[in-house]
Design a protein that fits this description.
disordered N terminus, five-stranded mixed beta sheet, alpha+beta
Amino acid sequence: MVLADARDDLAVPAPRGACPFAPPPAYEQARTEAPVKQVRLWDGSPCWLVTRHEDIRTVLSDPRFSADDSRPGYPFHSASRKAASDNTPQTFLRMDDPEHARLRRMLTADFMVRKVETLRPAVQRIADGLLDTMTTGSAPADLVAQYCLPLPSLAICRILGVPYEKHDFFQERSNALVSSTSAPQDVRTANQELADFLTQLADEKRQQPDDGIISTLAGRGELSPEEVSVMGRLLLVAGHETTANMTALSVLALLRHPEQLTLLRGDPALIPQAVEELLRYVSIVQAGVSRVATQDVVVNGRLIEAGEGVVCMLNAANHDEDVFVRGGDLDVRRDARHHVAFGFGVHQCLGQPLARVELQVAVETLLRRLPGLRLTCSFDDIRFQHDRLVYGIDALPVAW
């Protein structure tokens, strides 16, 4: 992104500063100086950058801002993001009501808090099994590869009814979809290969139903095979990529703040509250959330005209000092429930109850079972994934 008057240069994702957990300084500065400002995208098209907590909640809850990426003026973060939309069926995240609500309702029951809580014992068994395997091996171990990634991957595969042995296949395609530097053709190929895989899986589920979500969707006569495939792709990619990265960064943040780690070890009842604070503090969605105005709307005194795009930077909002005092500090005792890590409004993350359960189990199990958990490399040697739309780290070498 480049400012229309060329005084600033903003990238999506923007470069991080001295603290890799903090929002990019460019977004922090924008929130302080011009929380609703005009910018220019990678292809030269203009849009608005919104960085303040209150303004982002306003935009994301206003039906005059559309999530439909087929509308003229919709702001794509990169060529790869535009390629992901071109000739690819939309997920309901990129639809407006009533179609968005119709499709989302088909999944709501599966992700209600009460239903997801029944999965907690299964998630706990997965976490324990992974740590059993990891700790019988030699240290150091890569916590990303051996714990953070397989935990949500195993969970979402079981929930959807996707064979886990296909994990490498969809992990590689997912990597292409969430990288901001993927070549457009690579994104199209990854989308098509995932679509073919899930369409075939849905056909198999129609022949041999099970209790997974793919089977349930495939059995609904009102959904086309294409719609089942698109919904399955969304859940599969989002269901493991985001939580895996969030788990790894959460552990690293706690290891980086030993006083917070000590608080959690001394009072495990703080875990749910700490997870909310970690979601706020880390804010893994680097690319923000895009919308396009369908009517003229005034946000924080700035007129956004119909047809103009808006990018809401969630990570900047989650460090807004007007809402979170000392927002740059990690405080596991903070009441961080008003964070926007999962978005806001009718399009906020459907799977957030599952993500919370997985994060709570993952963190609590690590702290309880591995009291000596520690990094085996310098913090400066950790490789952060700056070029991805979902923030993460390549590896987390640890001993215990």
